[in-house]
Amino acid sequence: MRIDVVSIFPDYLAPLQLSLIGKARQDGLLDLTVHDLRDFTTDRHRTVDDTPYGGGAGMVMKPEPWAQALASVAAARPASADTAGTSGKPVLIVPSPAGERFTQAAAHELAAEEQLVFACGRYEGIDERVMEWAGEHFTVRPMSLGDYVLNGGEVAVLAMVEAIGRLLPGVVGNPESLVEESHSDGLLEYPVYTKPSSWRDREVPAVLLSGNHGKIAQWRRHEQYRRTAERRPDLLAAFDAGALTRADRTAFTDLGYDVVAGRLRRRPDAGDRE
Ligand code: ADE
Q1: Is the CB of 235 under 6 A from ligand 1?
Q2: Tell me: the pLDDT tens digits for 60-102?
Q3: Measuring from atom 6 of ligand 1, which residue has the nearest CA?
Q4: pLDDT digit string, tens, across residues 213-241
Q5: What is the CA 176 to chain-centroid distance, rounded?
Q6: What's the N-to-C CA distance of the chain in angstroms?
Q7: Residue 158 burial (CB count, 10 A)
Q8: CB of 144 shorter than 6 A to ligand 1
């Protein structure tokens, strides 16, 4: 996969040289280039922003440097992209609190692309006409990490590139670890423990020392249910409860949920949770 990141703070992206993503780049699994938006300006001051039409606080990023930068990275589309079964155009991700939510499902979808381009906005954002123009060359996806506001797109890009990059074949040593993790099956991950089995008077749950793999798998599943019900009950609305075993159904009943037409429904008498 090829990734291009355009930013006025290229140094902000330095952590992408480290750890798993840095190694993936070294191993040739990920071809990632960071571009300085100011390299695409033509004035002496390398200006990237100006005052907003209509008035108001802050500055807006000028359109022309963005068009120059994005046209330059679009022209560097990998040859393999034309034959791959992807969307045809490179995907332009614009991190913004006003974007669609970036989820694990989105990370999987984007990991199947040949080329991703990230446009890091700063100040009050990028002139909206850039998005319209970019639609001719890219599939444009404004994306948000969550319902809070960052100063710019760079931190969001660090998060998204890590989430996407670790799904590329060969990046994570043991692909099994991608299966049993939070959000892979619409639930939060179960708790984990390591040696010593007794630590500061706290014991590892006995079932994990039992060697009974069936029991362990069931305990872990039920811990996922418990955690998700406690911390993220919103996720349970989308959970497919159609094929649960009797024991799994009972686990949900104990947590205050009934299974109705294959979906979980919180019992009205189950008490306050949120
Ligand atoms: N830029 C500013 N805030 C953001 C957020 N919440 N997600 C993604 N990009 C952002």
Answers
A1: no
A2: 999 999 999 999 999 987 777 655 545 689 999 999 999 999 9
A3: 97
A4: 999 999 999 999 999 999 999 999 999 99
A5: 19
A6: 41
A7: 18
A8: yes
Q: What is the pTM of this model?
A: 0.92
Q: Place 174 in a pLDDT band, splitting at 50, 70 and 90.
A: confident
Tell me the CA–centroid distance for residue 60 and ligand 1, in Å: 16
